[in-house]
Amino acid sequence: MNDNRVAVRGVERVFASGHATVKALGPIDLDVRDGEFLCIVGPSGCGKSTLLRIIAGLLSPSDGEVSLRTTSKEAPLTSVVFQDYSIFPWKTVEANVRFGLDIAKVPGSVSKERVSRWLTRLGLKDFGGAYPATLSGGMKQRVSIARAFAVEPQILLMDEPFAALDAQLRQVMQAELLELWQEDGRTVIFITHNLDEAILLGDRVIVMSSRPGRVVAEVDVPFARPRSPEIRRSSEFAELEGEIWDLLRSEMKTDPRTSA
Predict the structure, then answer these.
(1) Which strand (E) or helix (H) includes residue 132?
(2) Would you call 138 helix, strand, or coil by DSSP?
(3) Gene3D superfamilies of this UniProt entry (predicted)?
(4) What residue ranges do the domains of the chain occupy?
(5) Contact predicate 130/92, CB 8 Å
(6) Among 58, 56, 85, 66, which residue's Cα sits nearest to residue 12?
(7) What's the rounded Cα separation, in Å, for the pair 207 and 92?
(8) Is 208 strand, coil or helix?
């Protein structure tokens, strides 16, 4: 039985700019297993976010196709968490978290329970009536993550969700997401520039080439679950990070935008 949740086949994306065209992505072939936490890394501008948006259905490929396997008629297929929070400034925290449930017309009693549960789980219980302008960056991203989990998507897509946070807060959010996922176990595709983050969170790390982005390596993360952030201190973690960095550095050397 095929246990893949996502299948990407020959996907390419070309953007038009005036009279010129830019090939941003591909061709890419990629499988994502059901319940896998897959991290994707690559040089800046290699098309990581473009690929995620194509998988989410927010952008059409210029060629190739993406297949998403659904196992539920009730649960939404995907939910996306972006780097820039993407929460509504005119809605309270509670209303932001409830938004996807309202769109899906989830019954009020179910919606209320889910919103309450995820506000509590993300440390937002006392901020339900607050507006985003009064929140820190970390709190705003907690709202985004709570909203994404509340709709109980079959596939969670995360586009550099912690990139705008300072180093200390980023580590706190990584640890919280790691704990959440290890309790929840849903399929996640996670875009990041941070190798430490990719290894800590992921079951597998996909390394993309410089533009047009292609898959140049797939690295299985060998650390057992449940996993703790303390794994960062091990020599094995540092060795794996060095191996992936060598792959990335090789790709950056071939990219004229990053060459001297």
Answers:
(1) none
(2) helix
(3) P-loop containing nucleotide triphosphate hydrolases
(4) 4-71+154-253, 87-152
(5) yes
(6) 66
(7) 38
(8) strand
Q: Which CATH architecture has domain 4-71+154-253?
A: 3-Layer(aba) Sandwich (3.40)
Per-residue pLDDT of 152-197, as tens digits, reads 889 999 999 888 888 888 898 899 899 989 988 889 999 999 999 9
Q: How open is the CA angle 3-60-193, to the nearest 5 degrees?
A: 70
Residue with the two structure tokens 């998988």:
55
Q: How far apart are CA 204 and CA 40, in angstroms?
A: 9
How far apart are the C-alpha atoms of 44 and 214, rounded to whole Å? 13
Q: Which residue has the tokens 């949740």?
A: 5
pTM, entire model:
0.89
33 neighbors 40 (Cβ within 8 angstroms): no
| Sign of the CA dihedral with 160 first, then 32, 247, and 49 last | negative
